[in-house]
Model the fold of this input.
Amino acid sequence: MQTQTRTRGADAATLGLGSVLVGSLPAALMTDDAPERYTVEAVFTRRPERDEVAEILGSSTRQFLSKAGYPTVEVTISDRRLEIANTNLEELRDGLASVLADRLAAIAEAVRARQDAAAARYEDAAATEQLRAAAVAALAESVAFRCSTDAVGPAFPPEWAATDSADRAQIDAWMTEGGHAR
Done:
């Protein structure tokens, strides 16, 4: 049984492209009938995460490609493939491949930085909560339920002592009534 685990932080592989899917290229390439521009599919080096996909498909990537000199190129994602539309192999070879690799690396780095920052915030919040819980537990342990005679001086006014002895006499009288043994 194989399992996949996601690595984060410095251990996470940078998102990139491995190779062109030759089988997805137009059959007429390198013939007189070859299209000038077409879609080229390239395989990602790993499955992109949801945040990476959002950035790849976002307007910032389109602007990045336009500023780099590729205003007609469009990218979409299909599973583990980047579909690069309105281009050709020569354009990719002559610079577009490097531009795409740089963009993917920047996206992966930005996403990883956000994830690391969120993880740090979570760890800080967990540490703060642990300190708070320890402080509450320490405060709760400091509460002592001791009789007032254990403390220094009486914990009640002296006039209560007289009332207490009168109550004690009444209780003793009730105890001798005879009904207590039933």
Observations:
- The CA atoms of residues 143 and 165 lie 30 Å apart.
- The first strand starts at residue 17 and ends at 20.
- Confidence is low (pLDDT under 50) at residues 1-11.
